[in-house]
Amino acid sequence: MKIAVLGTGGGARAHIAKLAGLGHEVHVGTRDPEATLARTEPDMMGTPPFGSWLAGHPGIALHTFADAADRAELVINGIDGRNAVAALSAAAEQLAGKTLVDYAVPFIYNPEIEHPWPTPWGVMPTLDPCDSDSLAEQIQRALPDTKVVKAFVTQEQATVVDPKSIGGGEHTMFVAGENADAKQAVTDLLTAYGWSDILDLGPLVAARGMEMYAHMHSAIGFALGFGTHFGIKVIR
Amino acid sequence: MKIAVLGTGGGARAHIAKLAGLGHEVHVGTRDPEATLARTEPDMMGTPPFGSWLAGHPGIALHTFADAADRAELVINGIDGRNAVAALSAAAEQLAGKTLVDYAVPFIYNPEIEHPWPTPWGVMPTLDPCDSDSLAEQIQRALPDTKVVKAFVTQEQATVVDPKSIGGGEHTMFVAGENADAKQAVTDLLTAYGWSDILDLGPLVAARGMEMYAHMHSAIGFALGFGTHFGIKVIR
């Protein structure tokens, strides 16, 4: 299958490598391919430059966001939450009619909010949108001809592509969206990734809860200790 | 142990009955005991009047919020989120120095928010406070001499008092708060309820995630079918 991954960060790389390993034709999208390849320093998250990573993963093509989307049947959005709507809107034509999986958390960093939590960030991030809207719904409104599916967001992407690394894979992945065929395509992809418990939460409004779970995910992560990987399982 | 339960709704009744069954001295608090006992019709949630319920549970005393708190060592807050801060503030003196477990979700019902979700409510509720504050933190600020612990909130209260009814009890309960002794007291109570996996999420700011999880809880509940009981387990 021809799959585009938009974004070159750590999460995007997890999907790119896994998809290539599964035999898919992977097209990676970035804002400015030349600028991405010219970088030689780690980014602010400490992720090594994409060019050197790409050198170790032959057969993967780097394009603009629009060109990558144009070449794919299914698109994974790894653009950060703050820039996603604008960047995806600029590629609306190439995304029309396609399934777009969104896993972004719409974090905003507000240094004016006093916060006592001893986070690695110092200040606890907040979300925008939150509660009465979600990033996934914003993307769907901006791209009415694209089939948006919210998924992957409740986990680290390294775990999303390797669910069996935790509890033998005995935990739950969630999907939400308006289009049943698109959700099935994402469910099939997740099954290929190794997931066995995939729960369809229904319409895209469920993305509010999935994105707002980021606070709970952070709290559990801090409680277990920084760097501990975990999942949650819905016990019926 | 002398335990007060503030509130007479379905969630409060689950705790009252369980605590009495465990041999604790239970004091129930309500805004106006005479008015509570005078009611003969089910409330808007369809819960039968408290007087008839109480008649089937001998040995349980009904007081004002302040009088119930005054008689207890540990207090469980079952007052709905919208009224909790005001009602608890009026009993600040009686709550001073005590552990207060809060399990409320600060739902607001806003009929002006257009919402496509086919919920039993018709319109999806939203939260206030949310994201940059929590009800538990508001209560703690209003009652600085009380040791507030957020707990129970990620589950139906019927499940909180009977965890083994789901998956043999193999799911996770969360606690958060500023005072280690208070969290230990709540953990001991949860252990008596039958919980074996109790995760301390740290300071009270973690209540934000616990309260915001309400959206995810609702979405999972709708996906599994109305009335299905479930829990979530943190898989390490």
Question: Could you walk me through the main structural features you see in this protein, from its secondary elements to its overall organization?
Answer:
2 copies of one chain form a homodimer. The first copy, chain A, has one domain (2-224): NAD(P)-binding Rossmann-like Domain (Rossmann fold). The model of chain A has no long low-confidence stretch (mean pLDDT 92). Chain A is 37% helix and 20% strand. In chain A, helix 5 (81-89) packs parallel to helix 7 (135-142). Chain A has helices at residues 10-21, 33-38, 50-55, 65-70, 81-89, 92-95, 135-142, 157-160, 180-193, 207-224, and strands at residues 2-6, 25-30, 61-64, 74-77, 99-102, 107-108, 126-127, 147-151, 172-177, 197-200, 231-235. In chain A, strands 3-2-1-4-5-8-9-10 form an 8-stranded mixed β-sheet, with helices on both faces. Chain A is built from 10 helices and 11 strands. By secondary structure, the first copy, chain A, is of the alpha/beta class.
